[in-house]
Amino acid sequence: MNHGSAAVDARRTATESRPVIEARAVTKRYGRQPVLHDVSLTVRRGDIYGFLGRNGAGKTTTIRILLGLVHPTSGEAWVLGHRVGVAPPSWLRRVGVVLEQPGFYPNLTAYENLALHARMLGLPTARPDPIERALATVELLPLARRLVRGFSQGERQRLALARALLHEPEILVLDEPTNGLDPYAIRDVRELLRRLNRERGVTLFVSSHILAEVQRLCTRIGIIHEGRVVEEIELTRLHQLSRRYLELEVTDAPRTAWLLENRLGITDYQVVEGGVVRIFDAPEPALVHERPEAISEALVHGGVGVRRLAYGQDSLEQHFIRLTGGPTGSPTGSPTGGMADHDGAHRR
């Protein structure tokens, strides 16, 4: 038995299981205004970590603290085993960053913009050319000599990714990477990020308010609400926890709610737009899951018409609303899957 190689393998396994990003009880205040409250999160090597929250929840502030751009009022942030703000920032060379609305020189070409950045990083431009490699990775090599002022928003976003990949980082931090993109550009960015994670082993930390995109892309999710991380969960575990419900389309939703509570003893339900009611459980679960006709009959006898009856399953959107207590303001969602007010209009 080769004890030396076994020891090396053990050290490698321990290193790979160690968090590559970690926040420990991070709090941030601006004057008397609290922005983050005891934020703790853990990102493991190889994760596609979705940092999910409404606009203003504290996502960008958390990212800036993790990158050392903002100092926390209290708590600690660690990246790649280095305490942010204490250790020399050499670890930043192993991290790529794409912040929202990346800036470029519009009168320079894509190649020239990346060449300036490569020079600041001290990267060699000899063959193989890291600029060409980065542009090829994001499928922009044919546009290398085109002025950036003529780029679409989706092309600019891919160019920002190319810039973040120039030094071949281990971690890629992205703040709202699909914000403002059309559905085709969103799909392109999503597939590119998956490929980077799958083929190069890049760990991704992606902040977003777009629920559908997080669900399609990420393997693990942290939910932040009003400056607090309220949950971290594996996406596979979230699917396991998703609850099945009985959905009814009725003629009188308020009357239905009254009948459910006072005639059937059901309190775990949700009234949605369009006269739709979702029943999640009851004192006798078999009533919901095995004898839905008994519920329908009770509603009809109580003067409520039942147009449709079907089973469904809890989504990430419903899980988010349940954790955060429902929408608190005008959503910034879009047809691409933003946080909308249409779900969770009434939940007991």
Automatic annotation (TrEMBL):
Matching Pfam families: ABC_tran
DNA damage as UniProt keyword: no
Annotated region (Disordered), positions in chain: 324-348
SUPFAM superfamilies linked to this entry: P-loop containing nucleoside triphosphate hydrolases
Classification via SMART domains: AAA (SM00382)
Gene3D superfamilies: P-loop containing nucleotide triphosphate hydrolases (3.40.50.300)
Record-annotated ABC transporter domain positions: 21-251
Stored CDD domains: ABC_BcrA_bacitracin_resist
Family listed: Belongs to the ABC transporter superfamily.
UniProt protein name: ABC transporter ATP-binding protein
Source organism (scientific name): Geochorda subterranea
Native organism taxonomy: Bacteria, Bacillati, Bacillota, Limnochordia, Limnochordales
